[in-house]
Amino acid sequence: MLVFVVLSPVVQLEQLDLRRYVARRRLGKRRRTYVVTLIHRMETLALVGVPVIRFMSLTRADEVARALAAAPPGTPIDLILHVPDGVVVDGEQIAAAMAACSTAVTVVVPHYALGDTAPVLAAAQRVVGGPRTLTDHRETEADEADAELLRQASALLDLYPQPPRRRPALVFVPLPSAQRRDPADRARARR
Predict the structure, then answer these.
(1) CB 3.0–4.6 Å: which of 1, 94, 154, 191 could bond 110 by disulfide?
(2) Whole-angstrom distance, CA of residue 4 vs CA of residue 154
(3) Residues paired with 112 in a beta bridge
(4) What's the burial of 168, exposed, middle or buried (CB within 10 Å: 0-12/13-18/19+)?
């Protein structure tokens, strides 16, 4: 029983990685492209269904560079990019790997590509994004065929739970005692 409890989170993460791999392959088959992802995500480890540990995860730049180099020759590449602001990405290394590719690299930005992604966007032959896509560097384009690509890329992001958005902190500012008084008291205080 103890072995099950200890290995359960590891098995859950492996199953999730397999589902992500299958989803990328399915998208690549539909588009006849090689799909690589650079997605910032929150992972959760659970014991017996109870979340125990949450941690942030991002594919390393050298892994993305290796994946770009491993693309079959002559196959176009789709790089799905989903990075929030403030996340450090080695964009120069990824851009160099994109420049070394013999085929066209399309960067797909379903929601946002902020942080250090400007070199990646600059190295792309084409950047595809929706009307609400946020980027730091380059305008995005989309047509009818790209709308389906954005929908599929957004569906792929569902396999990558996103970090919770932080609520703005509530700030309580006490009013000075003069402002809390009755209007008649304020009039007397002014005299």
Answers:
(1) 154
(2) 34
(3) 134
(4) exposed
